[in-house]
Amino acid sequence: MSPANELAELWVADNLNVEAIEAVDITAWRTYQLVYFLDRVLQKSPLPEGNVERLSKMYPKISKAQNAELRLRWCQIILKNNLEAEYSKVKEFLHSQGKQKYTLPLYRAMWGGSESAQALAMETFSATAPQLHVNVRNYVKKILGLEVE
């Protein structure tokens, strides 16, 4: 886990050490290592201006992942850094599944974020509510301050 920790530290720096970042090869990393790396980045978010965009471009394996664990964390990073240009990824993820494990943390992050993140939460919930299990739907309603069935 040390390489994941060290790489996360490099990404949270005000002045990115691109050489050091490029020296770390994540192509062979297992999913649990990528998850750990993203958890560290999330803990240290918001990152300095532009770092998340650069991270996204440098690691399409992460930013375009189809793995739900990676997608959840990437969406949380997008929200914590208020990266509105990437909000579509949050929306797509919530439209693609309705598991409580992934849904609730994202709605909490949206509701605790900017006005635009809160608007995204309401818009996404309106569109996805019918596909959610009634319990998940009620939990999301509580997060959003809506009346529970």
From TrEMBL:
The keyword Metal-binding applies. It comes from the Eukaryota. Its cofactor is Zn(2+). The keyword Ligase does not apply. Keywords: Aminopeptidase, Hydrolase, Metal-binding, Metalloprotease, Protease, Zinc. One of its GO terms (molecular function) is zinc ion binding. One of its GO terms (cellular component) is extracellular space. It holds the Pfam family Leuk-A4-hydro_C. Residues 2-144 form the Peptidase M1 leukotriene A4 hydrolase/aminopeptidase C-terminal domain. Belongs to the peptidase M1 family. This is AMPB Aminopeptidase. It comes from Ceyx cyanopectus (Indigo-banded kingfisher). The gene is Rnpep.
